[in-house]
Design goal:
Number of helices: 15
CATH architecture of the largest domain: 4-Layer Sandwich
CATH class of the largest domain: Alpha Beta
Number of domains: 2
Number of strands: 22
Strand order of the largest sheet: 6-5-4-3-2-1-22
Radius of gyration: 22 Å
CATH superfamily of the largest domain: Ribonuclease Z/Hydroxyacylglutathione hydrolase-like
Length: 468
């Protein structure tokens, strides 16, 4: 009997990891890290509820770290098989895993120095940069809608997920008792009202759908309202002679924001504003998006071409890139008229924390969140209205104005999730993952109203696929 066991992102949003056992094969869908807290403590808590040496294949839905970040640890623990992903995902992994490892190893070095000073035992790294290199070498790029025969008769096909560059819906097929069985793993489904990405593909049929539920309990604001709100925030910050800080995920959200700011520029709505992209990783990822532009949404590309832009940087002439630490520090001297986009999206690390340190206590500062903030993150605390927050070992008062632009989400909203599920052929059963409790329960209710068999994944609980 084929089973799928959710070992991460079960009744939580991060740490996507699901083990498929079918016809003697053990296949891992995603291998993501959990988010929140400092990197050293987080990595010490990460573990696998299986022997990595016994895994036959890894299939990656996309390159976000909560879906891919533990691949180096998996390799370090003995996994030596293929990692199937799309070509763009392979390119993004080279950037993201290297950056993640660099942050982790630097933080570990600093913590070990503090341990040495206090006469305590130091810690060894749980994985190294060599493990990142080996993980990348094990990647097998697969084109969208291409059938790939894995071991036995297990066949893989990637469909467009529309979430970030290279993101995929995973479709797996095999024979059981003379019938073809189909498992679909949604990965993260994209928001159809967003820009740059194509709309998610709908699988022709499925027996079981392992489905994300991030926004299962709510829809995003109408996108035109979100853009109007964004423009209003810019005008309010102009009146305050303030600086706008935008914590943004380096992959997906940053590029979408640059596109919309480019549209504002060409509409004459950014007069007097300078935009700074203050993230080495986001800069590198943006250039990867430029390399894969022809795979993105044709209508958005036409808007760029109409303004003679061949890249996102050309589409926003007031954009300045600040890859070096020295250039980033210089931004602290700005007084008004600046939009600073910096990682990380949930304020867990990155340069955004340094900008918050210098500006969070100023009433003229505007902090604009354009993405989901997971529980326990610094971003979530600010969105929830905490008047004081702690980071860098210090306590800061939140005098800045905090804004949330929900329409910019790269995830499908509730109505989009239900429509996608309704369009899948056959009589699929749904197994819900990647969501907080309220989202899971609400989406399960909506799917049942559509007549579907629905369960919410319990961590570590095997779920039968063949229906025998």
């Amino acid at each position: 009997m084929a089973t799928i066991t959710s070992l991460g992102a079960a009744q939580e949003v991060t740490g996507s990891c699901h083990l498929l056992e079918v016809n003697g094969q053990r296949v891992l869908l995603d291998c993501g890290m959990h988010q929140g807290g400092d990197t050293v403590t987080r990595m010490r808590k990460e573990h696998f509820d299986f022997d990595p040496k016994q895994i036959d294949a890894v299939i990656l839905s996309h390159a976000h770290l909560d879906h891919s970040g533990l691949l180096p640890l998996l390799v370090h623990k003995g996994y030596s098989g293929p990692i199937y992903c799309t070509g763009p995902s392979r390119n993004l992994l080279a950037v993201m895993l290297d950056d993640s490892a660099g942050i982790y190893l630097r933080d570990l070095e600093h913590q070990n120095l503090r341990l040495k000073r206090s006469g305590r035992k130091t810690m060894k790294p749980v994985y190294t940069e060599d493990d990142v290199l080996h993980a990348l070498q094990q990647c097998v790029p697969v084109d969208y809608r291409q059938d790939v025969l894995l071991a036995g008769d297990l066949t893989l096909k990637f469909l467009e997920a529309g979430h970030i560059l290279g993101s995929a819906v995973v479709e797996l097929r095999w024979q059981s008792l003379g019938k073809e069985r189909v498992l679909v793993f949604s990965g993260d489904l994209g928001n159809e009202t967003g820009v740059l990405m194509r709309d998610p593909d709908v699988p022709e049929r499925a027996d079981v759908v392992l489905m994300e539920s991030t926004y299962g309990d709510r829809d995003h604001r109408p996108f035109e309202h979100t853009l109007e709100e964004f423009q209003a925030i810019i005008e309010e910050a102009r009146d305050d002679n303030g600086v706008i800080l935008m914590p943004a995920f380096s992959v997906g959200r940053t590029q979408e924001l640059l596109y919309h700011l480019g549209c504002f520029y060409h509409q004459g709505k950014l007069d007097g504003w300078q935009v700074f992209l203050d993230s080495p990783m986001a800069i590198e990822v943006t250039r990867l998006y430029d390399q894969w532009l022809e795979t993105l949404d044709p209508s958005d590309l036409r808007a760029m071409r109409h303004n003679s832009a061949r890249t996102l940087e050309e589409f926003l002439p007031t954009l300045s890139l600040t890859p070096s630490v020295e250039e980033s520090i210089q931004l602290n001297r700005l007084h008004g008229g600046a939009i600073i986009i910096a990682g990380s999206g949930m304020c867990n690390g990155g340069r955004i924390r340094h900008h918050l340190k210098h500006r969070l206590w100023h009433k003229s500062t505007h902090v604009v969140f354009a993405g989901f903030q997971a529980r326990g993150t610094l971003g979530r605390k600010m969105v929830d209205g905490d008047t004081h927050v702690r980071f860098f070992g210090q306590r800061f008062v939140v005098n800045a104005k905090v804004h949330t632009l929900g329409g910019f989400s790269a995830h499908a909203g509730r109505s989009q999730l239900l429509a996608w599920a309704r369009a899948i052929g056959g009589e699929p059963r749904f197994r819900l993952v990647h969501g907080e409790t309220s989202a899971l329960v609400a989406l399960a209710h909506g799917l049942r109203e559509q007549g579907h068999d629905v369960t919410i994944a319990e961590p570590g609980e095997p779920y039968g696929i063949n229906g025998q």
